User: What shape does this take?
Amino acid sequence: MRAWCVVVAKDRGEEVRRVLRDGGHLLPHVSVLREADRLFFPTKARIDIGFPTEEREFAAAFAPVRSYKDVVEVPDRLRRLLPTAFDVIGDIAVLRIPDELDAHVGAIGEALLRWNPRLRVAARDRGVAGERRVRRIEVIAGEPRTTTVHVEFGLRYHVDVAKAYFSPRLGTERIRVASQIREGETVADPFAGVGPYAILIARRRKPSRVVASDANPDAVALLRTNVAVNRADRVEVREGDGHETLRSVAPVGRVILDLPHAAMDFLPDAIDALGPVGTVHLYGILSPLEREHRVMEIRESVARADRRILDLVVHNVRAYSPAQHHVAFDLTVDRG
Assistant: This one.
C-alpha cells in the first residue's frame, strides 16, 4: 500500500516512533521500512514533526487481533474510554459505553462482531432499572434481537436481555451455592429470574423441591421454558412478590436472596421461612465499611427473630466497582 512516512536516522528511531505513537499518527498494521541507516515510519497522513516526509510503498504487517479495540475505529483521544469488560450472553455481547462515545457506538458494535465471529448481536447496556432489575438495552450492531440461548455448566437458558436480568459473571457463585445443597432439602429462590440457580440445583443435586419465583412475568415465562428444556422436574415455578413467596413456602431448608440492592428487606421473611435449622444466601453491593455494617444488621435481624446464628460466612463474589464488591453472606441459623 502507498502511504506517507516520516524519514529518520536509525539512531533517532525510537525517539521519533514514540512521538508518532503518542500523537496517534502511526499507520497501524503496516511494517516500518529500513534502508541503510534510515527508517521510514508510515503515517496516517502527511505529518510535520521536523523530519523529512515522502510517499512510499509499504507492506502490511501481521498483527494478531487480541481485542475488539485492535479493529475499532474511534478518535485516538477517546480510545481510553473504550469498555474493557463486557458480558457475553449466548451470542449477544452486552456492554456499557460512556456517553462520550455516543457517536461511535455503531463502530464499537461492529468491531465486536468482527473480532468474535461467534457473536451475532452487540447491545448497549444503559443500566438496570426498576424493581424487576431489567436492563435498558439498545442493539447497536448485528441482528435486531435481544433473545438468545446461553449455556452454563451444560444447561441451556433461554434469555431475553431486554426483559429479564441475567448475569453470566455469577456462574461460579451459582455452582458454589449449589454444591452446598443436601439431598432432600427444600430450597426457595424468590428472585429466580430465568432460573440459573434453581435449575442448576435441581439438575446437579437432589433437593426435595426448589420453589422458583419472580415478580417479573417475562422472567417467569422464560423460567417455565427453561425448566421444561432442562427437564428440571423438581422446580416448582411461581409468579409473584418475594415477600408473598417466602411467607407461603415455610418450612424450607435454604433461601437464596439474589437481589443485592434490596436483599435486606427480605431477610426477616427469609428467616421466618426456615425450618428448625436453615441457611440464607444473602447478597449485597458494598464497600468494605458497608460490608462490616451489613454483618451487624444481619446479626440484629436474627436476634429480632429469636434465632441463633450457627455460622456466618462472608466472601467477595467479584469486584463491582473500584470501591465496591458483590458480597455473599451465607447465614445458618437455628431456633436457639
